[in-house]
Amino acid sequence: MPYPESHYLSPIWRDDLFKGRVAFVTGGAGTICSMQTRALVRLGANACIIGRNVEKTEKAAQDIATVRPGAKVIGIGGCDVRKVENLQEAAARCAKELGGIDFVIAGAAGNFLVSMEGMSSNAFKAVMDIDVLGTFNTIKSTMPYLLNSPDARIIYVSATFHYTGMPMQGHVAAAKASVDSLMASVALEYGPRGVTSNVISPGAIADTEGASRLLTGDEAALKYHARSIPTGRLGTVKDIADATVYLFSSAGSHVNGHVLVVDGGAWRRQGGV
Ligand code: HXC
Q1: Tell me: the pLDDT tens digits for 56-65?
Q2: How far is the C-alpha of 78 from the C-alpha of 194, rounded, in Å?
């Protein structure tokens, strides 16, 4: 689907900001990560997006490539972040075809609404494996290339559920707390070697499949929810893409080990959303 640039990027960034850089993005066909990638590619980067669904991932890569003439965007489907060998192959292909890896977005995530009572042990494990082990595998597989980059950055896409706890999201909250923690350790271990590591924590985003599905797609419920956010509105994919551009730009080069919450201040209210 064609998106106007104003949907995913503020008109304030320099056109060639990321010229010569290569981004490797897990979950890159999903709404948030595809828009983050779109913004990076629009500003000069080439990219490799990773997903489980082959058709969806390849289609997303083709769509993203249209934002800039000459852009190279590879879609690698059939890649399960729970399998480190899948990611190692994908990272090697990205480096071979695009010349390296400078930016990593660890965005692959599992999510469904389920009560503690209704959640099987395997359901909990599925989300922990995708979010936590998958993030570890992503870092493990891309780090050899990041260490060769003059400007290496990692962003982990987290959430805010784990600050307060969240009914029906116990598995996701536990997983995202682990992602935040993993980010901090990577920041300390690899900061001295030139790789920055930061989390972006989106709040509820209006225009994602995930939020619509999880928030029941009910417009009235979304409006009610928006009123509880201090800024008076739900987030947008542009909010997340702009934050990504900031962290990957030279303006963000001294930010390391940070959790950037992009939720209008909602998490500061007791009980979160
Ligand atoms: C209860 C469920 C379930 C559900 C799956 N399971 N869906 N339990 N309710 N809705 C259970 C299964 O019964 C099984 O347990 C276990 O989870 C593993 O399921 P599988 O389908 O075998 O696993 P797998 O194919 O690996 O898929 C895992 C998945 C994944 C987590 C369900 O397909 C997935 O996450 N899909 C959605 C991806 C997604 O939406 N990502 C965007 C996240 S956006 P048993 O015991 O039966 O073996 C986001 C932002 C949210 O997170 C913002 C909200 C405001």
Answers
A1: 999 999 999 9
A2: 31
As a whole number of angstroms, the longest Cα–Cα distance in the chain is 51
CB-count exposure of residue 56 (10 Å: 0-12, 13-18, 19+): middle
Distance 18 CA to ligand 1 centre (A): 35
Question: Which residues is 47 bridged to in the sheet?
Answer: 23, 73
158 is catalytic: yes
- CA dihedral over 143, 146, 152, 156, signed as positive or negative: negative
Helix then strand then coil, in percent of the chain rounded to 5, is: 50, 15, 40
Catalytic residue (one of 34, 149, 158, 178): 158
Amino acid 178 reads S
Q: Look up the pTM and report it.
A: 0.95
149 catalytic per annotation: no
